[in-house]
Amino acid sequence: MNVSLKLISFIVVFLSWAIFASAIAGAKETSEEFANDFPKSAIPYKTHFFVDAQPANDSFEEMLNFSIEKSQPLALSASTNSRFLMNATLDTLFDDPYDAVTLPKGRRSPILAAALSAILPGAGEFYAESYVRGAIFLAVEIVGWVVYINKLNDGHQAEHDFVNYANTISDDGKRRWDARRYAQGLSKLYSDTDLGNDAANNSVAFIGTDDGLTQIEAGDYSQLNLVEQYATFSNGSTFSHVLPSYGEQQYYELIGKYSTYTIGWYDFDATYLSKSFSYKSSSFLEYAAMRGDANGLLKDASTVLSLIVLNHALSIADAVLATSAYNDRFSTNMEVRCHPVTGEFIPYACIQFGF
Hints:
12% strand; alpha+beta; 3-stranded mixed β-sheet; 3-stranded antiparallel β-sheet; 53% helix
């Protein structure tokens, strides 16, 4: 694996842990929002409200007053084994006798959950305490990136291999596939053929000469391309492509894809030279297989990348649903009102559990 891919892997792992830690911290902050959302007054009273499985024998109002006076926990009866701690500051300074302090609900933000999952699939689910689903999305993300990087790396290595295969010098001093050898073959095939264009007819003869071959070796394919534009197969159809400049990606694609280029390979048997271009040398076939394998690996990498994007999208939607389910599962609303005559605190509580 090259340096850039190693760097990508490191960044992905680092961001995964960083965002996961951020999600956990965000969940902790949400659970502590009760203590932070209330203004602090000069004479604050702090109390703790516990929802526990233990029954409460006294009235709610008596227990609340006792809790405020003694700074002791307040126990409420509920049919659940879960314990929910709410920290609140009760402010005694009301501008209006009927002003009320409403304890905020311990809810999760769907927007935050979606944002977390957009960055790292599964993070939004962890934030909504849907740990199994979050672990699944996170595992798919990690596996997806590992597979993608491996496929991409293997594809690039395969590309490098077939390029080297074509550029290796053969016994005749030319590359295994060489434009000069290809030009010589075309010059022989079409030397007695009228291509229907005077310039193209002149180029047919020129590309077979020493000057023409020197020009091609220097990377000037203009005369060769002119012949390709007007040359025809034995059935009268024209060539579908002209040779790109040496070293371009399409150059290496075409020489192992179209049969017209088979005459440029070092092991081409000249006895099979014909305008049908039906004969394919063993090196042409081997190179075509190598090129196909490389393209297959790169295509697989592209497919995996698409699945990674899909995993992000699905995790975003699931995180919103998980957050909604979390908010529906437990809802608490409590008010403490000040009586306009006696000045006593009168509690109003609504606790909902969803299963």
